[in-house]
Design brief:
This protein is of the alpha+beta class and 291 residues long. The chain is 39% helix and 22% strand. It contains ten helices and ten strands. Bound molecules: guanosine-5'-triphosphate and magnesium ion.
Length: 291
């Protein structure tokens, strides 16, 4: 998300999101203004807000002086553990470390002071900066950890990995499936594949389409060929020793194929793959909406 020009959160803002294409999340962003905090900490609302929490993240502006910070943190912990005792670790992000005036060490001392040892061992503090991307990186780490504990997400992941391995069998190529909304890898035939964090990948197939599709339609029109509405869904790159294919699989996911060699045989094999049954199965699986 673009951070500049963000408006203060009013009350509780909710958003649904499928992380890495496999784990459905309902994100509750609790506004930090006093008026809103009073409301969601109130006797009437707190159970609703602090129940069924899967992951709790407390974000602090380390560059601001907030007299009620400690008190707020106390209430947050109290209601969280009261209504979501299964939540596990609480993650505290000390934000804005990019600023000179950031006092993350003081804030850490303030927040940890007087906590019981039990609580201390259940809270993980991390200095971060949204501006520099380390906050987003930390959030991804936290959610990846949650995937590891989520049976349904792990099952989905296993199934998708198996399907990618099937695709790979005949093509001497590696397959990478990306989730467009967050730009993160869903699965790959190389296992956990590290790409630069937060270098959010966007395959702009759409914009390429619009030009080429227009010209293509025109040519078809000129030659009087009636062709079914064509989906331009694959982009092919060529390097000295490889072909790289990029193809949209479903709403929100993109498959990238990198060949190990650059031969016509392999090119054809990948093209067959991308137009074959295994690909259709993957597409069907990813288009399911029974999340
Ligand atoms: N320098 C710097 N500015 C940041 C960083 N993170 C957020 N900001 C800025 O801080 C301001 C407040 O950001 P928000 O994300 O709206 O803060 P918030 O904590 O959600 O505030 P509420 O919605 O009122 O709870 C915005 O102007 C952001 O651009 C950071 O890491 N570094
Ligand atoms: Mg906000």
């Amino acid at each position: 998300m673009k951070v500049l020009n963000l408006k203060p959160t009013k009350g509780v803002s909710r958003e649904n999101f499928i992380f890495r294409g496999i784990m459905e999340l309902s994100i509750w962003d609790l506004g930090g203004q006093e008026l809103y905090m009073e409301r969601y900490f109130s006797e009437k609302k707190r159970e609703l807000v602090f129940s069924e929490v899967l992951a709790a993240i407390f974000m602090v502006d380390s560059a601001a002086k907030e007299p009620k910070l400690k008190e707020t943190f106390g209430k947050f912990l109290k209601y969280l553990f009261e209504f979501s005792p299964e939540v596990g670790k609480v993650y505290v992000l000390l934000n804005k470390t990019d600023l000179q005036e950031s006092k993350e060490d003081d804030i850490y001392e303030l927040l940890i002071k007087d906590l019981t040892d039990d609580l201390k061992s259940n809270i993980s503090f991390t200095p971060v900066s949204v501006k520099e991307g380390s906050a987003q990186h930390r959030m991804i780490e936290i959610l990846d950890y949650k995937i590891q504990q989520n049976t349904i997400a792990l099952q989905r992941l296993g199934k998708i990995r198996y399907m990618l391995d099937q695709l790979k069998l005949t093509t001497l190529s590696d397959y990478f499936l990306f989730n467009q909304p967050d730009g993160l890898l869903i699965a790959s035939t190389l296992g956990k594949f590290e790409h630069r964090p937060l270098q959010f990948l966007r395959f702009e197939i759409g914009s390429l389409d619009s030009n080429i599709y227009q010209i293509f339609s025109k040519i078809m029109e000129l030659s009087n060929t009636s062709i079914s509405p064509l989906e331009l869904s694959t982009v092919i790159y060529e390097s000295e020793h490889n072909y790289i294919f990029v193809k949209e699989v479903s709403n929100g996911s993109v498959l990238m194929v990198v060949t190990k060699e650059k031969t016509l045989g392999i090119f054809n094999a990948v093209m067959n793959d991308l137009n074959g049954e295994d690909f259709q199965n993957l597409k069907k699986y990813l288009s399911r909406d029974d999340f």
